[in-house]
Design goal:
This protein has 2 domains: 116 residues, Rossmann fold, CATH 3.40.50; 70 residues, Winged helix-like DNA-binding domain superfamily/Winged helix DNA-binding domain (Arc Repressor Mutant, subunit A). The protein is built from 9 helices and 5 strands; from the N terminus they run E-H-E-H-E-H-E-H-E-H-H-H-H-H. Helix 2 packs parallel to helix 3.
């Protein structure tokens, strides 16, 4: 039975996730803070950590850094109410398996947990999978700049692709529609799922 640690300061969400995962056949423990989570990680080996990014004292970024330093094979899923393009890109580059924006669907989380436990967290991106979403070559190039190179500014993206800033904005609008999202962090999360699934 896989062991999962949930690090989340929001009591209701932490309790609900713990209940749902325990009911789904996982052995789940929870921590209200990054400090508590680190203490549990010193005492017990987990297969997966689900962590919020924004928590009191030390944030989820500190926990992710700790996991990468001391438990590099452990899968990590991020949940956050404060998504940003930078945090999504940083998460991907650091090897985080998935990135969820609150609120999220229970079935999506359970699916991500199952996949995270089945796969090594260094799952390669298969860019050809974006074809099923009708993503153009230019849009794929834009997404590669954002996800692989960490370029977030429209002007820099425009310069790299030799297009206008207004064209970059239009590409993002098209991508939001194709992936059913409304901001860059959600778009990055949806694209990453498409590239890995």
């Amino acid at each position: 039975m896989p062991d999962i640690l949930i690090a989340e300061d929001e009591d209701i969400l932490r309790r609900n996730l713990t209940y749902i995962l325990n009911s789904s056949g996982y052995a789940t423990m929870s921590a209200r803070s990054t400090v508590d989570a680190m203490e549990l990680l010193k005492k017990k080996e987990f297969d997966l950590v689900i962590t919020d990014l924004v928590m009191p004292v030390k944030g989820g970024s500190e926990l992710i850094k700790y996991i990468l330093d001391y438990h590099p094979d452990m899968a990590v899923i991020i949940i956050t109410a404060y998504p940003s393009t930078d945090s999504a890109i940083h998460a991907v580059k650091s090897g985080v398996f998935d990135y969820f924006t609150k609120p999220f669907k229970t079935e999506d989380m359970l699916s991500a947990v199952k996949k995270a436990l089945e796969r090594n967290k260094e799952v390669p991106f298969i860019w050809e999978r974006l074809a099923t979403h009708n993503v153009t070559k230019r849009e794929t190039g834009l997404l590669k700049l954002v996800i692989e190179d960490g370029i977030a500014e429209n002007k820099e993206i425009a310069d790299k692709l030799s297009i206008k800033v207004t064209t970059v904005k239009q590409h993002f609008e098209n991508l939001y529609n194709k992936f059913g999202t409304n901001n860059r962090a959600s778009l990055i999360s949806a694209v990453i799922k498409a590239l890995r699934n």
